[in-house]
């Protein structure tokens, strides 16, 4: 991959690849299904920033009318993942670097609460669940599977919310961390990075297991803060991906 990422001229082939295996959708659920499919593809950078999303081609690929496609794209625009220019077209948005520090502050506040409660409430069975997730993350890191590793990473954080008996916190976190996710996914292929993430997660797990809320909060904050130095580096490596 070049440092500037794929050009818009080549972007339609990327769209074709992403939706090649998409199911033909029932009319009543098509807008939501298209939204979820494109949402996941954008967050994983399977559809990188700057990729053109053409209504007619999306309609043909998903075998639907223009209405559900437009509804899906409008929702993505509301999420800040798509830019719609009436006279120019629709494109996957650039990653909004200036929005990341504020999103990180919100995420840290919510996850700090979750991990503190988890340290107070965790049972041996909960720690066993975290251990299973860490084992899976380790295996995926060793296999170099960045996509499934990111999913396992997400579930580790979600599980902490469930242990804390605050599952709604994770739903709120997901709403504010979209630009963070797009940045973090870019870091995973770096040599040793996924193993580093597992090590950071293990420190969180150990503090929860010890019932040490303060150490759990510190470990979680340190883990989440890594995205800031990453951001400075990635903006240099992928200048076309960021605004």
Automatic annotation (TrEMBL):
Pfam families: FCD (PF07729), GntR (PF00392). GO terms for molecular function: DNA binding; DNA-binding transcription factor activity. The keyword Glycoprotein does not apply. Keywords: DNA-binding, Transcription, Transcription regulation. Residues 28-95 form the HTH gntR-type domain. It comes from the Bacteria. Gene3D superfamilies: GntR ligand-binding domain-like (1.20.120.530), Winged helix-like DNA-binding domain superfamily/Winged helix DNA-binding domain (1.10.10.10). This is GntR family transcriptional regulator. The lineage of its organism: Bacteria, Pseudomonadati, Pseudomonadota, Alphaproteobacteria, Acetobacterales.
């Amino acid at each position: 991959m070049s440092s500037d990422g794929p050009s818009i001229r080549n972007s339609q082939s990327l769209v074709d690849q992403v939706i090649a295996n998409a199911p033909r959708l029932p009319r009543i659920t098509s807008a939501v299904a298209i939204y979820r499919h494109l949402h996941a593809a954008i967050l994983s950078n399977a559809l990188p920033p700057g990729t053109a999303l053409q209504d007619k081609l999306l309609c043909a690929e998903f075998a639907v009318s223009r209405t559900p496609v437009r509804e899906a794209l409008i929702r993505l625009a509301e999420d800040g993942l798509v830019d719609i220019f009436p006279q120019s077209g629709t494109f996957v948005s650039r990653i909004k670097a200036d929005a990341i520090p504020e999103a990180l502050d919100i995420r840290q506040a919510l996850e700090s609460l979750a991990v503190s409660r988890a340290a107070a409430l965790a049972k041996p069975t909960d720690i066993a669940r975290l251990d299973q997730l860490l084992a899976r993350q380790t295996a995926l890191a060793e296999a170099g599977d960045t996509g499934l590793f990111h999913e396992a990473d997400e579930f580790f954080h979600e599980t902490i919310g469930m242990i804390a008996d605050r599952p709604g916190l994770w739903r709120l976190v997901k709403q504010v961390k979209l630009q963070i996710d797009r940045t973090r996914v870019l870091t995973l292929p770096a040599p040793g990075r996924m193993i580093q993430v597992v090590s950071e997660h293990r420190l969180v797990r150990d503090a929860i297991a010890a019932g040490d809320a303060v150490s759990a909060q510190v470990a979680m904050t340190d883990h989440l803060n890594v995205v800031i130095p990453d951001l400075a580096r990635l903006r240099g490596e992928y200048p076309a991906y960021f605004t």
